[in-house]
Amino acid sequence: MRKTARYRKLISSFAILALLAGCGEKGDLDATVSPGAQTSPDASVTSGEDKTDKDVSPGEKDPGQDEATPSIPAAQGLTYSGKDLSQIAPLPQKEELVANDFLLYFVNCASAASSSLDGFGLFQSVADQPFGTDKGSGRDWGYLSAEYMQAQGDVESADRKAAKWGIAEDAVYGEDTGYRYYFELPAGNYEVTCGFYDPFSPRNIDISAEGKEVISGQKILKFKETEFSFETEVTDGELDLFVYNAKRGQDAMQNPELSYIIVRAVPEYDGEMLAMMLEASGVSEEELKEYRTVTVAKYKESVAAAKKVADSDSASEGEIREAYENLKKAFEGLEKKMVYNAFTPGKTWQDTDGNKIQAHGGQVQKLTVLDKQTGEPVEKWWWVGEDKTKGYRGGICAYSSFDLYNWEFEGVVMRNVTSREELDTDEYFKELYAGYTKEQLDNVYRCINDSTSVIERPKMIHNEKTGQYLLWFHADGPTETSDANYAAASAGLAVSETPYGPFRFVDRYRLNTCPEDQEDMYPQSKGMARDMNLFVDDDGTAYIIYSSEENLTIYISKLNDTYDYLCTDPEKAVYGKDFIRLYPGAQREAPAIIKREGKYYLMTSGATGWAPNQARYWVADEIFGEWVDMGDPCIGDDKRTTFDSQSTCIFLADDGTVIYMGDRWNSDNLGDSRYIWLPVLFDDEGKMSISWQDSWTLKNP
Ligand code: DGJ
What we know:
- The structure is a single chain.
- The protein is an alpha+beta fold.
- Helix content is 16%, strand content 31%.
- It has eleven helices and 33 strands.
- The site of (2R,3S,4R,5S)-2-(hydroxymethyl)piperidine-3,4,5-triol has 9 residues, from strand 17 and strand 25.
């Protein structure tokens, strides 16, 4: 919702009445203006009334205009409209100004769109117009038509970036070339913003207001909305603006442009205004439930601060203004929570609090959990993954859902540690690691601290025998002999009695090694374990699947029956019974496994850091049997980048849809990495395929 509309919606009815009353007043004003009275100080300038009556649409040449390029009135001290000052109606009442966010004009330059009414200022009824009397407000305003002015872009769009003034290609460009606007305004101070959205090349902009240069030689960049704001005093009943580029010279790539102009009244901030703002921005607790938690917290904080200032007898104007503006910002910043009823791969995905889901490199499965409120067992989808809120290093988060679309945050279920002391002093850690020896605590710190350790691709399994939930993950970081981020190359384990956590870190391990009779692709470092996944077979046997031998070879290793270690120590493990190696030298990462109709499917990525690459999958009849290379399952993935994603999990939804879960990593901002969930299809021969969908739903919502 636009902010002005929000205020309008929430403001009490007195403001709406005032608004209506204000319109009437302006109509009267219009009637008192006689055409004869509109003598322009410059005879060559057509009077405002003439232009308005002829109803010129933006960009068109004004028929009332002389054929020759009009001469431009000198800006300083002249009243273009010719209204005498006694004819200029004062500003509307404070209530109305507050309700409309002090917005008097919002000119969407060169736009003919009428659908932006919500965004209009109090003194306008059209998006833009050649100078003349506004039929709705009775105020005189608009641009001075000039032959060189050309409406560019989509003039039908209400988007302020869609259309703009530019300079016609064959125009004769001179020193006076630019865009002149005049706005009827009673004497006072105004905040003016000129907005630019330049789809061409960067260029400079100059702005003068009331004949004074206020912005000189400021750069506007390509494809970047840029605004320049300034305050200016109007004494002569009219604000005149000139937007140009003094340095344009003969370079048409430096033509000045102009996308929009905002004119706001600058009020005097007093207790009454703050009280009005408090009323206008009031939102009930019930309504607040619909908004994102972070934005609600900010809003509540600002309301409390504003109330304190409003209740104080000694608050200065500065304090009132600060409280007013903070409250306004927080109110405008209230963002509705998303309710999803479809998967939209690659789009931001928020949890039910409205925060971005942080469960990267994750896994989804169905669990029966005890409902937090009722204590009753309920079936829920459970998503665990990496918390990248703070960037590269974070703990492990969990989310739960009934429908796979909307996810409730269940917390950081395995927290990483900020300092070694924290393990001895912080209540959460003290309780969690009670009974650990000093050496064990040192190891916890070494393996899951937030400054050097790497925690990636967590996967959770539940062990029926012990009742424990186990999180296995790629635990990495420097070692005694290497500072590298990925030197440890181990499988980490954390356990908890519930899927909600807290998960207690147990240890990290190197795993099975290449048998002597096979070619080890990386003999210098044994038992490495990086990108990983877990799989529990129908008979309850669990396996850990991971990249080893410096990511050159995938291993599948059997876990013991409590799922907390390998079934056999690496020194004694038997190849083919306790583990196997897959595709030595193929360099595959990101394993995701599913069993379907008796066959095992293993999807993997190549190894290119955070950059996506081509997927490949293998199929086997037995987990330790022969795995057959089936190639890339993606259809129409022209770039061969798995639709710009990297596999992390494949699971079966209730409606029978097999879902591919991938990560679209954003290495510049890992916390904003996106999720790519796509349906996986299987043909009669069991071959899998994945096609792109912008948006899709399950069959039985
Ligand atoms: C690819 C892996 O699959 C990710 O989990 C992560 O380790 C990145 N490499 C780091 O570059």
